[in-house]
Amino acid sequence: MQNAKKRICGRCGSSNLISDRSLGGKIVCVKCGSSFIKTKGLINSSNRNFYYLLLILFIIFFVILF
Fold it and tell me: How many domains does the chain have?
């Protein structure tokens, strides 16, 4: 079993993935069995809320300034 560094399960969020030989090498999640795999981005869900808050504060500051 090889762990994919930048891939996570789109259903449960686990990074414990395996290539299933019976499905022709399709990557599936070991935890939930889903084949919905997505890649990790620079902004994960916890940081995304922070960036939205920062953007809203910047817009409010910009509106007040002008």
Answer: 1
